Amino acid sequence: MKFTLLTLLSVGIPPSIGRMLHATRRGLVPDSVTSNVVPMRKHIVPSSAHRSSATTPIYRRTAAVNLPANLTNVHDVYYIIDMVVGNQTLAVSVDTGSSDTWFVSDPLECVRFWWQGPEYLPNCGLAEGFVGNLSGGVLDNPPFVRSYMDTTFVSGYYGFDDVTIGSITAKNQRLGVVNYTFWAGDGLTSGLLGLGYPFMTSLDGPEQNQPPYDPVFTTMWKDKLIDPLFSIALSRESEDQGETGGEVGTPQGSYLALGGLPPVEVDEESWARTKIHGVDAIPEWMFEQSDLGLYIIKPDSWVYGRETEDVDPNKADKGAITTNGLTTNTTQFPVLIDVGATLSLLPKGLVQKLYAAFDPPAKYLSTNGLFFALCNATVPRFGINIGGNTFYFAPDDLLRQTARDPSGDYCRIGVTDVNGGPYVLGVSFLTSVVAVFDIENTEMRFASRTKY
Asked: Which residues form the signal peptide (predicted)?
């Protein structure tokens, strides 16, 4: 069977009563804390479970349509919710970098891939899936097919059933039912909840031209069950949680909020907004149409360095301004906001400047296929200017104490360099903010989380 290389990659309280305007120094922001809040559980995969680039060609599992980027499997942090299909509760990973919602069902065939020898016993690491028949029946055609750029894929058929997330139910929702897959799971989830636009559901099968359909979130807002936005707040793992290999409780707050904001504290003066761009904004995808597909933004500038004395102008980056050791680079390029990506993936030239700003500088570890720095290194500042406000990565996200090399002396950098797009802002950025995905206004909004 031939697959296309698509990177596609609760609290039961009454619904939101509507959108309220609150003032910030950047104007009126139509957000209110919603009662439709679903707590997310974080799962951290032990470092030993990561596949090495020295033995396998692993690509990123994030939503995009492009040639593969040579990366190791760095997706070691997952955020999980419980989703009810019919009357069965399934644990699924939350993903803003794809649109389909799918889950496995018996009989399930788990297969090896081309780089795995005959001695390899397939183990897709998926939890128990849906049992029985979907109440709304199934579609004979088209088949459900989705391939990801880390070489994983899922295949099966479409069916219909009611889907409940928190207290909101999408009636007779179209869903992917998977019975054939190569996957790299960890035994805790049965599938994926995709929160992208309907357009991405059309990129199915070898011709990538199936008619699109409304995913779960789209159905919910079109049926006026929620306002047409959702927001995400992600917790950060602490140092003693990194190698558990199990689910981590998140009393400090990881939430998916449908129709409004999650119940977490933010700096109200930090709110900023920016336009969501169409799929043609990413040249590597080669789309001519400007349909909205994923959450693509163009930050205003990037800030990096150590707050010291001014840099010699002769050594400053071209087209950048350096003040008190911090360089502001105004080069603009599109990035995806993707909760399904652990690391942030950014242009090589920019990230190499960040690596050099560590003291001592970060270095490439060939056994891991990524850049690491000494765990006690001095961490530089790295920020993204969006809508006139700069959001800085937290030091714990730039130098991840929970992701160490085998010696235990080197920690992984939360940003990795790639030679081409699509670029991604992943969990390493999102743990510092509340991110609002506003469909009605075609914009994203961000606010800095207060320390937690």
From this structure: 1-18
